[in-house]
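In this supplementary section we document a worked example of the pipeline. Step one takes a protein sequence of length 335 as its only input; no multiple sequence alignment statistics are reported here. Step two produces a three-dimensional model, which step three serialises into structure tokens for compact storage. The input and output of this example are shown verbatim.
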Amino acid sequence: MPFRRNGAERPKIESISPVAAIPGGDVQIRGTAFGSLPRPEVSIGGVAAPLIVGSDAFVVARVPESASGGEVVVSNGEHQSASTSVAVGSLVAGNLHPVASPAVDGEGNIFTTFSGSRGQKTPVAVFRIDTEGTITPFLSEMMNATGLAFDASGVLHISSRFDGVVYQATGSGVMSVYVEGMGVATGIAFDQDGNLYVGDRSGTIFKVSPSRQIYVFATLEPSISAYHLQFGPEGYLYVTGPTTSSFDCVQRISAAGEVELFYRGLGRPQGMAFDPQGNLYVAASFGGRRGVVKINPQREACLHLSGPNVVGCAFAPTGEMIVTTTNALYRIPSR
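The serialised model returned by step three reads:
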């Protein structure tokens, strides 16, 4: 029998979607006895959450900036529900300007950019965030740092959409040119043989061999912002590149350079990451909600994380997801 006291039924949370969010994202809560008059009250991480929709069985609440955790409680004015958890991201760094996914080295250090507008020289191009959360400038002498990728030996590579150069940097931040002439160089990724792939957003994916010979690997529709590249566990190169369509796709390219559609139905898809189970995560809109979309190997999609202005994601060695927005970086606890 439902719990009752003073004539009112205790609220019960039956489901929360998505399973993760960052401040500013919204969660959909379904259940019973939330109360419609007055409106239900929701707290997330012990902080009152603004309601977007409120009814007796369905609530949409926005994650407050000051949420200190992910415990969700619904109150109908007389009684509170038992708490249910959602993974809420914690702010690691603000005042950034990433335009793609962060890069994480084998020790868990995070690298992200302050890209700036095209042609803008910023004081710092790439920041390093250690495992203790300490933020330090890593690179400064480049313009419009865009894509980030580590090679097999742990050397960081950075593309510049300003000059079409891919740079490499030692662990101490000494920078040199790795390859140039890459057009509007955006996303970059390495395959298991050490070949570097560079996305020129005007329509070309370049392949650069370890000896730095350059080939045209594939040709795609131009992107209005950037190509984002990520290798999947089966050896395909996955590519996103927002167009003027609101129904964009993820494409993948075989080792022979054959392009095929992997999934269609995303809004402005950008940075990507794979988990150990082979699920693909894409910074995109899905069903009108912005965040990170999870696409399983069977090509079934759902919103995994809700949040505004998400541009990229990556996984730390501990399994935590790292999410970049247009001005910040968040760490999402693993579930």
